Amino acid sequence: MRKSNFELLRLICMFLVLILHANFLSIGAPVYDEIPKAEFFIRSIIEVIPFLAVNVFILISGYFSIRPSIKSVTNLLFCCLFYSVGIRCVYYIICWTTGCQPLVGFLSSFYFVSMSVWFVADYLMLMIFAPILNSFVEKVSNKTLITTVGSMLFFAFYFGLFRGVLVEYISGYSFVTFILLYMIGRILHQNKEWIDKKIGFLATCGGYLVGLVGLFLIVIIAGVRGHDYYFYLDDLGTSRIFTYTNPFLILSAVCFFWLFARKEFYSPTVNKLSKSVFAILLIHSNPVSITFYNKYFKYIYDHMGLVQYLGVMLVSCVAVFFLSIMIDQLRILIYEKWISPLSVKISDKLKDKYENI
Length: 357
Hints:
About 75% of the residues lie in helices and about 0% in strands. It is an all-alpha fold.
């Protein structure tokens, strides 16, 4: 049985992604000179807190190590295909019955030709390269592993964040960044006993708060000085603060992850819900869905005060979260009944074929 503390962490992080997308992405980054100061600070901290979610997802993958198989790859691809085609079909049926014009082109609804779910392509690449990374970790010394990751962090911080000359590190929207986070996860796993002895609960909380406050202060300073510190959909890769390689973000993500890694527990309910974590991302980030998701939050933000908006945003994100899990039960049923047995047969045939060579 999967360790439920990590499955709960994955669920929490996916909910944070919903909050993240409902804030700056939907209603735009706050401008210091154009809105009340209290609103600027509140919306900035709301953006900072959930920003660690993507980093934590990759840390979990690195901690346990990805062991790609035909079954795991087909599960990911089927999930993408199911919601790419399914959401598009439902959308066209609604447009046909209501007589409205589709707002999103047909091809843009497919995840591998859309930048709106960049995570899918990068994670698939990580799955492909995971055996190489795992082999490297298993063969080198702990000192070599830490030195290698330390060098990668230096390049990420200096040439990506401060100099802005390495494209793959500027925003962190890259396969290279995923490798870095994956390797950090492997280091955490290999040094678990030492970390448990030397770094206590309070120190972990302190590290998380230092990372969170550090990132928040940088965001506030940049906003007060009038810098455009957030990226836009048509200009990915220009963010120098909200980057997945920001040292404060990595620190807060590692400490947040370790708070959950410290205490293991098992819950069938949590494990069952966590099966739909990826589906929540695919459902709300589909080019069709995210268009209406953004318009919805923009509308309520324009017609409500900040306090009311935050309340409605929270309730709405909870609704999207659990509605997506309910919808995903159909996908799980289809996969387990037809797709999974087929992938097992293919895997067995390929195994027999190569064993006989």
